[in-house]
Structures are given as C-alpha cells and as structure tokens.
Amino acid sequence: MTNRILFIIMLVAGLTAPLFAYPVFVMDLLCFALFACAFNLLLGYAGLLSFGHAAFFGGAAYITGYVTKEWGFGPLLGILAGAAFAMVIGTVFGFLAIRRQGIYFAMVTLALAQIIYFLALQMPFTGGENGLQGIPRGQLFGLIDLNDSLAMYYFVFAIFLIGFGIIYRTINSPFGEVLQAIRENESRALSLGYDVDHFKLLAFVISATLAGLAGATKAIIFQFAALTNAHWQTSGEVILMTLVGGLGTVFGPVLGAITVGALNHELSAFGSWVQVILGTIFVVCVMVFRRGIIGELQRLVSRKSG
Amino acid sequence: MSMQVIMAQALLGLNVGVFYAMLSLGLAVIFGLLNIINFAHGAMYMLGAFIALIGYSLLEQWFGISLQIGFWASLLVAPLIVGILGVLIERLFLKRLYDLDHIYGLLLTFGFTLILQGLFANYFNVSGTPYPGQPESLSGVVNLGFMYFPTYRLFSIVFSLVVCFATWWVIEHTKLGSRLRAGVENPDLTQAFGMNVPLMVTLTFAFGAGLAGLAGVLAAPIYSVSPLMGADLIIVVFAVVVIGGMGSIMGAILSGLALGLVEGLTKVFYPPAASTVIFFLMVLVLLFRPAGLFGKEK
User: Fold this and answer.
1) CA distance A124 to A144
2) What residue in B sits closest to A49 (Cα-Cα)?
3) Please, which residues have CB within 8 angstroms of residue A187's CB and are 6 or more apart in sequence?
C-alpha cells in the first residue's frame, strides 16, 4: 500500500519534473537513481557488496558512445549495446567474484573494475582522460529527434521506469525471496536445496546489466562517456546513495540518488570539500543512520501504528 | 634486451614490492584480529608521506614553528601520528561496529578515505609535490657489481624488508606474538584467560596503520607526494591480498614482494599491461585456487 502511494508520487514527480527543474539535471539524477536501484538489488537484497559497479556504469557508456558515433547505431540500439556489454562483463566478474565471500567479494569486484578503468584509460578509441566525446543523441525510432530536451527527458524517464519495473518485479518474485533467504542465512538456503551460487550470479548479472543501462543512457544524454564514471569513486558514490536512501528498500535508492546528486550539484563550487562532506556523510550513515531515509520512515510509521 | 635492463626493472619492481608487502602485511594483521578490511590503509600511507613533507618544509610557513623534522625523525614521527589516528578511529568508531556485518567496517573506512583525501586535495596539488628532505647520506648511486642503483632506493628496499621480517618474527616467535595469535584464534577464550583483548585490538589496528604511515615516509623521496598516491595503490594491494590470502603473515609479505617483481618485469616485456597485470593474476588465482596462494578459507 505504502509502495503504491510512493510509486504514484514518483510517477507524478517524474512526469512533471521538466516543468520546474532543469531537464538535463533531472535526467542525470534519473540515471543515478536507476544505477543505485540496480546496486541495491545486489547489496540490499542479496547481501553482496560490489565495490566495482562503476565498471558496468562507466564501461557501458563507452560502448554506447562508440557504436552510436562510429557505427551509426540509433540511440535505443546503442543503449541496448551498452547494457549488453555490461551484461557480458557482469557475467564474467560475477562468476569470478562469487568464488569468494564477504569482504573478499568487495575487494575482488573492486580490483576487477580497475581493469575496465585502465582499459578505458588506455584503449585507442576511448579518448583517455578526456573521455569519449561527440556522441550523437540521434533520432529515436528514426522519428523523434532526441536533441529536443523534452523528448530526451521522457525517453530517459521511460528507460528509468522500465529498469525500475524490472528490479521491482525481481525483488517481489520467488527468485527475490530466495535472494533474501541467502542474504539472511546462506547455509540454510543451501541446505534447503537452492543452488546458492546460481542465484548470486543471476542477481549479479541483472544488477550489472541495469547499471550498464543507466550508464549507457547517461552517455546519450551528455553526449559524452566520462572516465570518472568508470572510476572507483563512482562505485563508492552509488554505495553512498543506496545507504543514504535506505538499503534493501524499494524507493530508498531513488531518494538517495536525488539527495546525493542534489548535494553534489549544490556543493560543486567547493572543490575538494565535496569529498570531505561525502566522506563525513558516509561515516555518519554507517555509525548512526544505517536504515537510511526510507528505512527510518518505515520504522517511525510502524512504531506509530504498532 | 640486455640483462641490465631486466635487472634494473626487477629491482625497481622489488622496490614497489616492498611497499605492497608492508601494506598487505598491515592489512593482514588488522584483518586477522578485527576481521575488517581497512580501506583507509591507502589514505594512511598518503598521510605518512604528507607528514614527512609538512614536517620538513611547511611547519614554519603553516604553524609558525621554526622546526624542521628531517627524514630520519619522520620515520619515527609519521608512523606515530598515523598510529594515534588509528587508535582514535578504532576506539571511537570501528569498536561500535564489531557486532554488525563486516562490510560496515569497510564502508566506514572508505568514508575516512574520502575525508583524508579530500582534505589534502584542498591544500596540495593532485599531480604531486616532490619531497625535498632525502638525506645527503642516501643520495647518489651504489655499484652493485653488475649495475648502478640509486642508494636511496636500495636503502628503502632493505629497510622495508627488515621491518616486514621483524614483524613476522615478533608475531611468530615471541610471547607477545603468541598472545596475539591466541586472540586471532579465539578472542573469547583469550579474554577469559585474563588477556586484555580490546586493548590488543586497538594496538593492532594502530600498528597496522603505523606500518602504512611508515611506508608512506619511505615512498615520499621516490614518488612525488600526492593526495591520490594511496588510493591507486590500495586497490592493487587489495588484489595482492586476494592473491596471497590473508591467512598468513609470511604469505602477505611474500606475495607483496613477488607481485611487485612481476609488475616491474611486465614493464620491460609489455609496458601497457604493467598497471593491470596484478589484476589479471588475481583472476587466475580465483579460477584455480580461490582461497588464495597462502590462504585458508574461513
């Protein structure tokens, strides 16, 4: 019930946002919101901390940029190509990372993501530190010109809703139930006959693919694939968004992405102090605010009604 | 390719390797007792280097104290300060997280990494500041018989090796070390025997942090001191730790040295892969020996 109300709020806010906010900024937030939701599927529901999700987000952006710029792919096909790339490396990384548990899992994903970062830095087509520039927005279905910022906006919002829908369905499916069982007690899930590794890998691949979808979309919006999107700091930022909004809640990551995104935007004039502030928020969240915004609200509501 | 070039790169690789070894040793010692991975380890290494730099050339300008802390004094002062920071982080923050999932420790220390890195990025150039305090006695080159090698680099290799093996010896062969190992094995029982385990935990964390600070001082005259110097290093060290497995102290030291060497040699034979070779080795280890070369899965 609460979820339905929140969903309607999100829908209305999303549809009307271009009326009162700068569309490109909102689109940026939507990409990060989808990215955070994808990340949350893995950490919040399967209990797996990936410290390498920037590889999918940033990596997909390069592929999308390359195929639309050099091979003349349309925006939709380009974005799908980026997401497909994220799916492929997600499968490989997931297969390797689930061989270790807990804290090792985090270190392995971080190290694997660094390979993608160095490739993005060194490969001839990526533009090195300048990133891949001049990506065309193109025509959607050959009809709608995405250079129009409103058309672009609703295209991005549609992608966000599809991604969000996939994650929502995944969480509320029998598959999602098993993931949560694994998070709560892996050995018990195993002894109940579930092929735990299989479930973890599938969750990892879904999460990576959707993170890639978000990154690919971002490349089309900004017509630019940035090296920073593949950097480990981006992996850290998506963790922060999820943590601030509420780990393991459906809408938490969306709210977290908006909060952190807006903060980044407001503080951009302060240079390196932004990092100090984000770090401080990290510390505060971990110490006293582990439920996040949505988690704390839920607790308040349930306390009042109970 | 001449043998000399290969030997030179191997020695330079070993030079990187001793830093890997010192950092992975610290991570392993901390992990053994606290079950926490200290993400801020790289930032503490950076902090060590900055303390040396500030102590040498900025005390007067910044704080109006007409004092210069030279290189040798920095080797003592920097680990001490970083160690005290370690005590504070452990006592005030980490301590409250021990009952939670261990990933919270990682996230907390990640937060501290951002704070430290951001603070120094405000005052120092990201591309690095050279450390001017390398002592006169360590300048120049030494003749190794088959080649000439910078004296300071040789010193930093030997000094780090001594520190690493001394640490190993203390942990494996002294009474203090046996208590520590007992704490790793079974903290509750060790506590029941009257040993102050919480104090051990704090001091262990401080010691690991101090090692990182020490490595930072040693690195300062070689690499330029930059706010980002630790961040890039720590991810490689994570891979080193995954490859070696954190089960053994000696394992952490040896894998650090070996991987530095491998990286150095990759620079000779295929330079573009030098920055990623360790990550690819990690992939191989995960495929064929998932618990790590020296590791035992907990």
Assistant:
1) 32
2) B103
3) none
Cα separation, B127 vs B132, whole angstroms: 16
Q: Smallest CA–CA separation between B202 and chain A, in Å?
A: 18
Of B35, B104, B280, the CB nearest to A286: B104
Residue A289 φ/ψ, nearest 5 degrees: -135, 45
Beta-strand runs (E) in A111-243: 132-133, 139-140, 144-145, 224-225
Closest CB to B114 among A47, A111, A282: A282
**Among all residues of chain A, which has the CA nearest to that of B97?**
A287
Q: Could you report the predicted ipTM of this complex, rounded to two decimals? A: 0.90
Q: Does A123 touch chain B (CB under 8 A)?
A: no
Q: B195 Cβ partners below 8 Å, 6+ apart?
A: B179, B182, B183
From the list B111, B241, B276, the residue facing A282 with the nearest CB is B111
Decide if A122 touches B, using CB distance below 8 A: yes
Q: Taking CB atoms and an 8 Å limit, are A273 and B235 in contact across chains?
A: no
- Cβ-defined contact of B283 to A122 (cutoff 8 Å): no
Angle, in degrees to the nearest 10, between helices A149-171 and A196-222: 170
DSSP secondary structure, A27-89, as one string:
HHHHHHHHHHHHHHIIIIIH----S-THHHHHHHHHHHHHHHHHS---HHHHHHHHHHHHHHH
pLDDT in tens, chain A (306 residues): 678 888 999 999 988 888 888 889 999 999 999 999 999 999 999 999 999 999 999 999 999 999 998 898 888 999 999 999 999 999 999 999 998 888 889 989 999 999 999 999 988 888 888 888 888 888 888 788 888 888 899 999 999 999 999 999 999 999 999 999 999 888 899 988 889 999 999 999 999 999 999 999 999 999 988 899 999 999 999 999 999 999 989 999 999 999 999 998 888 888 788 889 999 999 999 999 889 898 888 888 888 775
What Cα–Cα distance (Å) separates residue A191 from each residue in A42, A46, A180, A195?
22, 17, 15, 9
Please give the Cα distance from A9 to A197 (Å, whole number). 37
CATH of domain A21-305: 1.10.3470
Which structural domains are found in chain B, ordered by start?
3-288 (1.10.3470)
Measured in degrees and rounded to the nearest 5, phi and psi for residue A37 equal: -60, -45
Compute the distance between CA of residue A109 and CA of residue B176 in angstroms, rounded to an integer.
36
Single-letter code of the amino acid located at A270: F
HSE value, Cβ hemisphere, 13 Å, CA-based, for B52:
33
A104 at interface of B, judged by CB pairs closer than 8 A:
yes
